[in-house]
Amino acid sequence: MLKSISLYNARLLLFTFCWAVSQTVSAACNKESLPYDAERKPKSDINQAISTLGKRQLVLLTFGANWCKDCRVFDKALCADPLKSLVKNKAEVVKVDIGQWDHNQDIVKQFGNPTEKGIPAIVIIDKHQNILTAARGGKLAKARSMSQADIEAYLSKLLNNAEQSLQVATADTKKPQ
Question: How many CA atoms lie within 13 A of 161 on its CB side?
Answer without folding.
Answer: 16
